Amino acid sequence: MIGILGAGAFGTALAVALTANGPVTLWGRRIDWTGENPRLPGVPLPPGLTVTQDLDRALQADTILLALPAQVLGAFLDDHAARLDGKRLVSTAKGIDLRRLTGPSALIAQGCPDATVAVLTGPSFAADIARGLPTALTLACADPAAAEALQQRLSTPVLRLYRTTDVVGAELGGALKNVIAIAAGTVIGAGLGDSARAAIITRGFAEMTRLAGHLGARPETLTGLSGLGDLTLTCTSGQSRNFRYGCALGSGKDFDSTTTVEGAATARALDRMASRDGLDLPIAAMVARLAEGGISVEKAMDRLLSRPLKEE
């Protein structure tokens, strides 16, 4: 049995997809729906899926996917790490913990030292996965044998997983692309055009690569599904919450405060990391200021465009 902790859109989508391989138990703190998750309208829950608010029931699984937001995962582990230790734990969060300035895999490893830790990330929307549309993801695990076993366990005929041992690189690609997606959305929302968006994506990818290398990631990982692939998707599609949030910032419109936008908190975490380590991450810094309401869109663009000219 596979257990999935977190009954949001993405956790539910994975639960629906993975019933192709056997029984799945999906856990959520508050589940007030039956038949289908309202965040995935038109997607019925398959017979092999058990939805529960009983955490003990989900923890009976030996392989558990942690489909919790990055800013929620740390507190959850503080409360339940001992019960998770020794299992195969796969994080799907795409962010950096704002308080501890670490990625999800490090949080899990600290709390569950005897667990096998992996990361599932890459270009994907919950609705696509839930509807059985072809999707390719990266599965990162430092243990090659465990990575291969998880790859077999979590792949389906339409959900194709590619494995890597570069956990840091895969995890950072998924986290950092959300920040750049907010910037890309801001550009479009402000009416600055597709050429400006292309510039933001390209220079944003340079920031991603620079930070990932500083933190020990392999450069080629960032050119794969978990980096460039996910960046392309989230910077160009209205299905991306981070992109939509950026569009709202750029146009001065309100955004649904109940929707989790991982990139906003991650931008603030990156800004703190840049100050700590002496890194130059101008786009992340501007996104952090925009998300905090500390700068106008016009001023943010002026600051980026007035930076000294240099070689690419």
From TrEMBL:
Binding site for substrate: K94, R241, N242
Known role: Catalyzes the reduction of the glycolytic intermediate dihydroxyacetone phosphate (DHAP) to sn-glycerol 3-phosphate (G3P), the key precursor for phospholipid synthesis.
Enzyme's top EC category: oxidoreductase
Catalysed transformations (reactions): sn-glycerol 3-phosphate + NAD(+) = dihydroxyacetone phosphate + NADH + H(+); sn-glycerol 3-phosphate + NADP(+) = dihydroxyacetone phosphate + NADPH + H(+)
Main location: cytoplasm
UniProt: NADPH binding residues: F10, R29, R30, K94, A126, R241, V261, E262
Lineage: Bacteria, Pseudomonadati, Pseudomonadota, Alphaproteobacteria, Rhodobacterales
Cited NCBIfam families: PRK00094.1-2, PRK00094.1-4
Protein residues bound to sn-glycerol 3-phosphate: K94, G122, S124, K177, D230, S240, R241, N242
Active site: K177
Keywords: Cytoplasm, Lipid biosynthesis, Lipid metabolism, NAD, NADP, Nucleotide-binding, Oxidoreductase, Phospholipid biosynthesis, Phospholipid metabolism
Family, per entry: Belongs to the NAD-dependent glycerol-3-phosphate dehydrogenase family.
UniProt domain Glycerol-3-phosphate dehydrogenase NAD-dependent C-terminal: residue ranges: 166-301
BP terms from Gene Ontology: carbohydrate metabolic process; glycerol-3-phosphate biosynthetic process; glycerol-3-phosphate catabolic process; glycerophospholipid metabolic process; phospholipid biosynthetic process
Pathway in which this enzyme or protein is active: Membrane lipid metabolism; glycerophospholipid metabolism
PANTHER family the UniProt entry points to: GLYCEROL-3-PHOSPHATE DEHYDROGENASE (PTHR11728), GLYCEROL-3-PHOSPHATE DEHYDROGENASE [NAD(+)] 2, CHLOROPLASTIC (PTHR11728:SF1)
Listed name of the protein: Glycerol-3-phosphate dehydrogenase [NAD(P)+]
Residue span, Glycerol-3-phosphate dehydrogenase NAD-dependent N-terminal domain: 2-146
Location of this chain's protein in the cell: Cytoplasm
SUPFAM superfamilies, per the entry: 6-phosphogluconate dehydrogenase C-terminal domain-like, NAD(P)-binding Rossmann-fold domains
Domain of life: Bacteria
EC identifiers of the protein: 1.1.1.94
InterPro entries in UniProt: 6-PGluconate_DH-like_C_sf, 6PGD_dom2, G3P_DH_NAD-dep, G3P_DH_NAD-dep_C, G3P_DH_NAD-dep_N, NAD(P)-bd_dom_sf
Organism encoding this protein: Paracoccus liaowanqingii
GO cellular component, one term: cytosol
Binding-site residues for NAD(+), renumbered to this chain: G6, A7, G8, A9, F10, G11, A126, R241
GO molecular function, one term: glycerol-3-phosphate dehydrogenase (NAD+) activity
